[in-house]
């Protein structure tokens, strides 16, 4: 009995228990079954699953694997609650595992900073299934890949399960982009370190990503949906060039950071600045980063940007705001390159941060950039929190030296 009490004196165990309890209680209190939840719950009433998937592929989306889970689990919200709790816990476990279970309490604290309430935008069940389930499966797959890289014993069953989970994960485009960047970093590292045992699994996963990308690009439903959503939400989108779309993506991202979804970004910014102050040689970069940030904030408050009009994208103010935001991102990436004493850690932080930003900037290439709401910030928020936790772990290691 005394030994069991000692377990609960460990901060990681306490944090895990509290986080798990909060997740379970929240699933008792929330009310799924509204908005898109209700629509997906009825799609199999007059169609078989193959008929429904064929219809969605032709007119709406290439996310057929995710569509299966939407059609199945929205029909029984009690089962959805159980699976959803498991998905969130799997995500927290996988992130902790990637961090070698070092100070896992920071992972649970960081996850508490994630704006979970955004998951109700299209209905609790629909948003969680679309955004969190693929991400949880993908992160778990990467944790298994990390075991293979470290030459740990992985059973054939777990390898097959991880492979299937990865296929499911990259059926969502934002997850595909995020993991593609990470896998390219892993592949380069494997080649540089001559870790030939891990090259084949990484190449296989990259091949899966390329196959899924081709499947998405050739899907008639994606093209049809773009036309319909352009006409409904942003008619001027068809006249945007690549620069206009990049401006739309990056500026809307920073607008959210300062107005609608500030917590993960501010958490990252505070820890980032603190970590930077410990590197005196990089103090000048801190000043540049602060200047770029305040320039962006000034531009944001001084100009009315991004109403639903393409003319706003061509205003000088929009481009100045874009340049300020881009400078901030570049300065952060350059700073992360030298922030720790380990090159591989610095490159990992740069890759993950850049990939996370890309998952939101790519929304500028969609006419639903605004209509899709805050749920499209899911992955950039998780990346901010992940990088923050890694910075805290590096600070802890420094303090122990």
Inertia-based shape? globular
Estimate the mean pLDDT confidence: 86
Main beta-sheet annotation: none
- Rg, Å, rounded: 22 Å
End-to-end separation in angstroms reads 35 Å
The overall strand count is: 0
Question: N-to-C SSE series?
Answer: HHHHHHHHHHHHHHHHHH
Structural class: mainly alpha
Helices, by number, come to 18
Helix content, binned percent: over 70%
Taken together, the total number of domains comes to 2
Strand portion: under 5%
Which stretches of 5+ consecutive residues score pLDDT under 50? Answer: 305-311
Which terms would index this structure?
single chain, 401 residues, mainly alpha, 2 domains, 0% strand, globular
Characterise this structure.
The chain folds into two domains: 1-218, no CATH class; 234-401, no CATH class. It has 18 helices and no strands. The protein has helices spanning 2-7, 11-29, 36-41, 49-59, 64-73, 77-98, 104-112, 124-149, 156-169, 173-192, 196-217, 220-233, 242-259, 262-277, 283-302, 316-336, 343-361, 378-400. The radius of gyration is 22 Å and the shape is globular. It starts with a helix and ends with a helix. Mean pLDDT is 86; it is low at 305-311.
């Amino acid at each position: 009995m005394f030994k069991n009490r000692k377990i609960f004196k460990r901060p990681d165990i306490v944090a895990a228990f509290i986080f798990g309890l909060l997740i379970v209680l929240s699933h008792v209190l929330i009310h799924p079954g509204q908005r898109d939840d209700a629509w997906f719950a009825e799609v199999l009433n007059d169609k078989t699953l193959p008929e429904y998937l064929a219809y969605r592929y032709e007119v709406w989306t290439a996310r057929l694997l995710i569509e299966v889970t939407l059609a199945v689990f929205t029909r029984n919200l009690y089962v959805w609650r159980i699976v959803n709790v498991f998905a969130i816990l799997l995500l927290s476990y996988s992130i902790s595992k990637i961090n070698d279970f070092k100070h896992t309490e920071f992972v649970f604290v960081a996850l508490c900073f994630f704006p979970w309430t955004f998951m109700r935008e299209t209905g609790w069940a629909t948003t969680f299934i679309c955004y969190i389930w693929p991400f949880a499966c993908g992160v778990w797959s990467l944790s298994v890949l990390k075991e293979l890289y470290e030459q740990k014993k992985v059973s054939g069953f777990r390898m097959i399960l991880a492979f299937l989970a990865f296929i499911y994960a990259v059926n969502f485009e934002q997850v595909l982009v995020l993991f593609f960047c990470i896998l390219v970093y892993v592949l380069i590292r494997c080649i540089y370190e001559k870790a030939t045992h891990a090259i084949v699994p990484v190449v296989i996963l990259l091949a899966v990503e390329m196959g899924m990308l081709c499947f998405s690009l050739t899907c008639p439903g994606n093209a049809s949906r773009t036309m319909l959503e352009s006409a409904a939400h942003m008619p001027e989108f068809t006249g945007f060039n690549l620069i206009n779309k990049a401006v739309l993506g990056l500026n809307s991202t920073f607008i959210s950071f300062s107005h609608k979804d500030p917590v993960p970004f501010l958490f990252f910014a505070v820890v980032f600045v603190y970590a930077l102050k410990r590197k005196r040689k990089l103090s000048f970069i801190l000043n540049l980063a602060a200047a770029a940030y305040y320039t962006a904030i000034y531009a944001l408050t001084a100009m009315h940007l991004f109403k639903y009009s393409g003319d706003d994208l061509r205003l000088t103010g929009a481009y100045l705001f874009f340049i300020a935001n881009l400078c901030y991102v570049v300065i952060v990436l350059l700073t992360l390159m030298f922030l720790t004493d380990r090159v591989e850690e610095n490159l990992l932080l740069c890759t993950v941060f850049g990939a996370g930003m890309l998952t939101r900037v790519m929304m500028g290439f969609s006419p639903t950039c605004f209509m899709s709401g805050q749920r499209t910030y899911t992955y950039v928020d998780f990346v901010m929190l992940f990088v923050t936790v890694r910075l805290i772990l590096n600070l802890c290691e420094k303090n122990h030296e």
